[in-house]
Amino acid sequence: MSEKLTTALCGMSLSSPVLSASGCYGYGREFDKFYDLRLLGAVVVKGITLRPRHGNAGRRLVETPAGLINSIGLENPGVEGFIAEELPFLREKGVPVIVNISGNTAEEYSELARRLDGVPGVSMLEVNISCPNVKQGGMAFGATCESAAGVTRLVRRHTALPLTVKLSPNVTDIASIAKSVEEEGADCISLINTLLGMAIDVDTKRPVLNNTFGGLSGPAVKPIALRMVWQVAGAVSVPIIGMGGISSWQDAAEFILAGALCVAVGTANLLNPYAIPEICIGLEEYVTRQGASSIRELVGSARA
Amino acid sequence: MVSIKFEQGTVIAQETLTPSIFRTTIHAPNIAAEALPGQFVNIKCGAPASYDPLLLRPFSFNRIDSEGGTFSVLYRVVGRGTELLRHIRVGDKLTALGPLGKGFVLPEQSKQMGPAAKPSVLLVAGGMGIAPFYPLATALVTHGLEVSLLYGARLSSDLADKTELKALGLRVLCCTEEQRGECPSLVTDLLQATIDAGDRFDLAYACGPRGMLSAVKRVCKDSELPLQLSLEEHMACGLGVCLGCSCERASDEGYWHVCTDGPVVWAEEVKL
Ligand SMILES: Cc1cc2nc3c(=O)[nH]c(=O)nc-3n(C[C@H](O)[C@H](O)[C@H](O)COP(=O)(O)OP(=O)(O)OC[C@H]3O[C@@H](n4cnc5c(N)ncnc54)[C@H](O)[C@@H]3O)c2cc1C
Ligand SMILES: Cc1cc2nc3c(=O)[nH]c(=O)nc-3n(C[C@H](O)[C@H](O)[C@H](O)COP(=O)(O)O)c2cc1C
B245 vs A24: CB contact, 8 Å cut-off? Predict the structure, then answer.
């Protein structure tokens, strides 16, 4: 990789602005078999909770036109399992790791932050206040300015790690939520998590998912995600990790032009294991064609 | 560990077996080289950069020619992906991810099976559950094993691969809903009848709809016949990343993932 894609996020130097989106990349092992993980600016790992979770019962996936509804339910080995079983692999690969954390209660978030603080190999925390697939907590924390600010404040108190707060798109005014987490010390903002959606089986006449609703991702959500990144970029001064439907370098470039410093690729990894390297190559050529020396020069250019 | 390839192959044959069942043969030497019976491949059915449909579609290997660099998939058209797949023209490119998952455990690798001198193996297929059995039967016959197949379908014209499996030297018993009355119309009844008639097997493999698998599991459990199942579940990545294709574990809490823990599992490991 050339210098054209290198960037700096919250004090970390990244080889590229392209990251993995949580839950669509596991802990990196599967993709390491396809390419060198150091191509990514950072691996954002599957959402981690205090204790292991088995995930949701029943069917977990529904395909929609250019989209995917998931109801995984944060299946993960818990923070101790993650530190013991998964983190050493990523450390050895030499790629920065952003740990996505989720709690049922505000206290669980702060406990997770405390546990991960100072753990070698962890570069940053992504506070997921936007998971639509768990019964308690999750998205509820991202639903109002007060609750989003409250979680951010608590987590901030328990870690010296840089914090990014991952926002839910299932709100009326995402910019004001972004502002309130910035005020409480978020160093960065990630958006968007999945949009609440559902599907009904016309034969059984019942919702397909046991939880009725699931999270919609993929190309179908991109215009909404891009609009929200644009709104948040206009409201805060901290950097933004933009995501939602990014499948090509053009998609990634749109988010960067809208004001995202970094982008994260989720669902596209599930369709093409080389999605991220292909996006990196395309972005690099784009920077060259634009006569720029670095992707950083293009951040927010569409806002001029 | 087998290495998984994301490979652009070429469609080299399209066969119409019945108005709704098709076989597509693909030249993709890197995938074909390492494919094993019971494993599967994820196929991009739509045009290369199209989101219609978004996800790749999983299919069992129905033919594997490692030396010739080709494999085939046998499928029923049930929706958008399979409809597009059957219309891809010979000579056109097609992208596939594979080989994926854990395939069938062959008798000599299998601990569950007793020390029979010449093991006798039973295959039970329901509908498109026949798809993975040709490569399995080929391997079993090559090992000199005696193989029987019980095969159920709705119509007798739906009994794809029946002639080819017979030609391998298998004893094949079929049942369809058309011949109701003459013999059992459900493959699980046929299985029960076969066992009641005193036929003895050392190992069984089953593939088909969930309800059938759970009935086969019951019958095999009652007659203490070790059983492997090939499972299907709605799936996205095929790699164990998204955790979408969950299947309840039998013993402890939690889930297997069909794409990496399966698709082939021992029947006693799963709740159906
Ligand atoms: C490991 C594995 C191996 C498979 N092997 C074969 C095979 O060899 N031959 C074959 O014909 N089919 C096989 N299938 C099923 C096949 O993947 C689906 O039929 C196919 O994806 C349907 O795609 P579609 O776009 O045509 O239909 P869609 O429009 O996606 O779906 C049509 C209908 O099929 C159901 N369906 C779709 N995918 C699945 C699935 N994975 N499990 C259960 N139901 C599903 C949908 O709920 C819907 O009712 C396999 C599935 C798995 C997981
Ligand atoms: C299968 C799946 C699992 C996900 N798991 C998580 C998760 O554990 N934590 C989280 O913050 N977001 C999770 N997400 C949301 C993604 O990280 C991302 O925000 C969203 O899917 C939009 O991006 P995309 O369209 O590129 O996938 C998940 C998404 C999918 C599709």
Answer: no
CB contacts < 8 Å between A and B, how many? 84
CATH architecture of A3-55+73-194+218-303: Alpha-Beta Barrel (3.20)
Q: How many Å apart are CA A267 and CA A24, to the nearest integer?
A: 6
Residue A220 has pLDDT above 70, yes or no: yes
Who's near B14: CB < 8 A, 6+ residues apart? B22, B23, B24, B25, B86, B88, B89, B90
Q: Is the pLDDT of residue B115 over 70?
A: no
Checking if the pLDDT of A82 tops 60, the result is yes
* Distinct helix (H) and strand (E) counts, chain A: 10, 16
CA-nearest residue of chain A to B239? A30
* Sequence ranges of the domains in chain A: 3-55+73-194+218-303
pLDDT digits over B210-243, tens only?
Answer: 999 999 999 999 999 999 999 999 999 999 999 9
CB of B30 within 8 Å of a chain A CB? The answer is no
Q: What is the DSSP secondary structure assignment for residue A224, as one 8-state letter? A: H
Annotated active-site residue A131? The verdict is: yes
Please, what is the average pLDDT of chain A? Answer: 96
Domains and CATH numbers, chain B: 5-100 (2.40.30.10), 107-269 (3.40.50.80)
Distance CA B44, CA B51 (A): 10
Contacts of A54 in chain B (CB under 8 A): 253-255
Its pTM surpasses 0.80: yes
Q: Between helices A222-233 and A249-258, what is the axis angle to 10°?
A: 30
Nearest CA distance, B213 vs chain A (angstrom) = 17
Contacts of B52 in chain A (CB under 8 A): 65-66
Enter the ipTM.
0.94
Mean pLDDT within B195-223: 95
Distance A121 CA to ligand 1 centre (A): 40
For residue B268, the 8-state DSSP code is G
